[in-house]
Amino acid sequence: MHPAAYLPNGDKLAEITKAINTVSDDEVIEFSKKLKWGTYGPNGDQPVKIRYLYDLDTEHLENILVTQGHIGPIYIRTILVLLKHRYIHLPALT
Predict the structure, then answer these.
(1) Which residue in 15, 28, 71, 93 has the most C-beta neighbors within 10 A?
(2) In the chain, where are the structural domains located?
(3) What is the pLDDT of residues 10-67, one digit of tens each?
(4) Secondary structure of the chain as H, E, C letters
């Protein structure tokens, strides 16, 4: 069964989305240290490796948002918060 088949729909999805949006960014960042992601490497040809979202590099997180349309609102919010945090804390260009 496709992973998208496990995603909630309708009222349940709205309820989950509302709940996700009530959590602070700091709590989401802490949660990302426990939220797992399976990766098959940059070319998709390696054995699966399980990593925490927090540990993925910025480009990988961006690619997940672009290529993995089946991910649910928890993963989307978590990735967006991580990216926002990383973009805000970029070193200044000189």
Answers:
(1) 28
(2) 24-88
(3) 676 677 677 777 889 999 999 999 999 999 988 889 999 999 999 999 999 999 999 9
(4) CCHHHHCCCHHHHHHHHHHHCCCCHHHHHHHHCCCEEEECCCCCCCCCEEEEHHHCCHHHHHHHHHHCCCCCHHHHHHHHHHHHHHHHCCCCCC
